[in-house]
Amino acid sequence: MKGEHCSRGTVLPRPEVKGAEPTGFVMPPNKIQEDATVLENLNYRNDYYQITFAAPGISSRVEPGQFVGLLLPDSPELLLRGAFSVYDADPDPGTF
Known about the structure:
mainly beta, three-stranded antiparallel sheet, two-stranded antiparallel ribbon, 5 strands, about 5% helix
């Protein structure tokens, strides 16, 4: 999973047309979508993992205790985004 590209770190539906928003779609002001890259995936303890993502737009706005939704590209069998709890965010390097 390290180095894999993760798409659209938010809970909003992904647009059908890549690179374009569907007609009538308006992004709420408090939500953002951004592509992210997995920088690190550590097995913290048994079934618990600590994953570090690179996503500057999200890391500057998210706080510990909040959740981000993760959509994996090329995985049509996964209809819902996975919810990940944020432990720490550092806007300087753009990671969370």
